[in-house]
Design a protein that fits this description.
alpha+beta, Glutamine Phosphoribosylpyrophosphate, subunit 1, domain 1, Rossmann fold, 2 domains, seven-stranded antiparallel sheet, six-stranded antiparallel sheet, 26% helix, 20% strand, binds iron/sulfur cluster
């Protein structure tokens, strides 16, 4: 079974994702000569490509629907989840005889076209949009990951989240005698290998063995030739929902992806639950006791506003955060403006509760992102001007309240405030709809290193001075939690508080590139791994960067 990116390398590596000999027939998606260089796909919502905001982990999707065009349903589902990952996209389909995977670097719309989707026929599919949290942004690390099982069937898997015992799992894979070369370097690929490695167990039974051994955040969709599976970590850190089609079932990271394919929401996949869907219907088992700790940042920024998590609409939660922000940090001002688009609902809430008029002061050019064009120094200096343009007539002479979702390094806000002052604003009062981000996330969100987080080294007034705002107010942790309408005990707030709900362990290497460099088994000893001490969000192992995993582990 051959597939791959249109211009991908030859499929001569076992399980590289190009050659999947799981069925008797061979289908080749058409190859298209590429006329122009491919962009890197990062058409992100970052306002300054040089200083990215929080990066989402990934989006996952799965559908079991005989008689439907499952690849196209998955394509549209992934479209709705594009905000969760813009580095790579992929779809696996099965017609009952074989699993075919098609994936590439880039946006969903760049990776798939009508002809490719038309060649992906079957009755079940899984799909993925990727932002890399473990492993580099390479074709091999795009998902779905694929393995041929010990029984000779195919296994394609999609993962949202990040594991914190990846090094331990790599040793387990070695002990289990996982053969061949790790062409991919992700925790997701390891999980696929471990499930596929059981010679005597069905995939369902193997998953029940392997899933309890994973630690960290994982919302999974996976499949073999006949069955769609969905599983969620015992803490349910990342969202995963189950939906119903007239003739089938859908699972997706967010309810917005169910809406786009016309599926009705059934329920959330429960923390610690494994669901299997095939011609015998839906089966549910629990591989661990649920200890819910959903990511509170999904409500702040990560999830789409039209998604519902834990019964709470994300847009409504964001508006309520804005209302609370207005009560906690009032301002004497003439106009409330959002930093588009993620600051918009909270700005609406702030204006409503404060009585200060709401207006549009910044226009976002959504179609400028990182491209294959290398920016010159002059263009680089434009920074956020490539993305945002002030409405000078609106801003001139005004005292502004500017509402944004978070401050990571502070560079974006600093540039933004300079731009607003140059456009004639007489005062700029910044209000942030999350508490100060002081700690790295190990469960699938790439903020920055601890050393880079501006709120880690400065108090609120220090950050205010650093970004040159007239005043600065963050919503309180209590205000944020109240707005989600979830009990505090069921939420992860670690990036604000440093209280990590899933133990990080002392022997793990917590870094995005934890598996890079090890390439082939056997695995280096754990002692070496301990020497990797920095978690920079971009590069592990830098002894020069303070903070990071080790710091998080040794903090008082
Ligand atoms: S550390 Fe922050 S971003 Fe990460 S899961 Fe917890 S709340 Fe979400």
């Amino acid at each position: 079974m051959t597939h791959g990116r249109p211009d991908g390398p030859s499929g001569d590596r076992p399980n590289s994702g190009h050659l999947h000999p799981t069925g008797p027939r061979e289908r080749r998606p058409r190859r298209y000569p590429r006329q122009v260089p491919r962009g890197d796909g990062r058409l992100t919502h970052d306002l300054d490509p040089q200083s990215p905001g929080p990066q989402d982990a990934c989006g996952v999707f799965g559908v079991w629907a005989p008689g439907e065009e499952v690849a196209k349903l998955t394509y549209f589902g992934l479209y709705a989840l594009q905000h969760r990952g813009q580095e790579a996209a992929g779809i696996a389909v099965s017609d009952g005889a074989s699993v075919v995977v098609y994936k590439d670097l880039g946006l969903v719309s760049q990776v798939f076209d009508e002809a490719t989707l038309g060649s992906l026929r079957g009755h079940l599919a899984v799909g993925h949009t990727r932002y890399s949290t473990t492993g580099a942004s390479t074709w091999e690390n795009a998902q779905p990951t694929f393995r041929t099982t010990a029984a000779g069937t195919g296994l394609a898997l999609c993962h949202n989240g990040n594991l914190v015992n990846t090094a331990e799992l790599a040793v387990m894979a070695a002990d289990a005698g996982v053969s061949g070369v790790f062409s991919a370097t992700t925790d997701s690929d390891l999980v696929t290998s471990l499930i596929a490695a059981h010679p005597d167990l069905s995939i369902e039974a193997a998953a029940m063995e392997v899933l309890p051994q994973l630690r960290g955040a994982f919302s999974l969709t996976f499949m073999d030739e006949d069955t769609l599976y969905a599983a969620r970590d015992p803490q349910g850190v990342r969202p995963l929902v189950l939906g119903r089609l007239e003739r089938g079932w859908v699972v997706a990271s967010e309810t917005a992806a169910l809406d786009i394919v016309g599926a009705s929401v059934v329920r959330e996949v429960e923390p610690g639950e494994l669901i299997a869907i095939d011609e015998n219907g839906l089966r549910s088992q629990h591989f661990a006791v649920a200890e819910p700790k959903g990511c509170v940042f999904e409500y702040v920024y990560l999830a789409r506003p039209d998604t519902t998590i834990g019964g709470r609409g994300v847009h409504a939660a964001r508006v309520e955060i804005g209302r609370r922000l207005a009560k906690e940090h009032p301002a004497e001002a003439d106009l409330v403006i959002p930093v588009p688009e993620s600051g918009t609902p909270a700005a609406v809430g702030y204006a409503e509760a404060s009585g200060i008029p709401y207006g549009l002061g910044l226009v976002k050019n959504s179609y400028v992102g990182r491209t294959f064009i290398q920016p010159s120094q002059t263009i680089r200096q434009l920074g956020i001007r490539l993305k945002l343009n002030p409405l000078r007539d609106v801003i001139r002479g005004k005292r502004l309240v500017v509402v944004d979702d978070s401050i990571v390094r502070g560079n974006t806000q600093r540039a933004l405030i300079r731009m607003l002052r140059e456009a004639g604003a007489v005062e700029v009062h910044v209000r942030i709809s999350s508490p100060p981000v002081k700690w790295p996330c190990f469960y699938g969100i790439d903020f920055a290193s601890r050393a880079e987080l501006v709120a880690n080294g400065l108090d609120v007034d220090g950050v205010r001075a650093s970004i040159n705002a007239d005043s600065l107010g963050y919503v309180s942790e209590q205000g944020l939690i109240a707005a989600t309408e979830q009990p505090a005990s069921r939420l992860c707030t670690a990036c604000f508080t440093g209280r990590y709900p899933i133990s990080l362990g002392e022997s793990e290497v917590l870094g995005k590139y934890v598996l890079e460099g090890r390439g082939q088994l056997p695995i280096p000893v754990l002692e070496d791994q301990r020497s990797v001490s920095g978690w920079t969000g971009r590069q592990a192992g830098s002894a020069t960067v303070p903070g990071g995993a080790e710091d998080a582990l040794t903090r008082p």
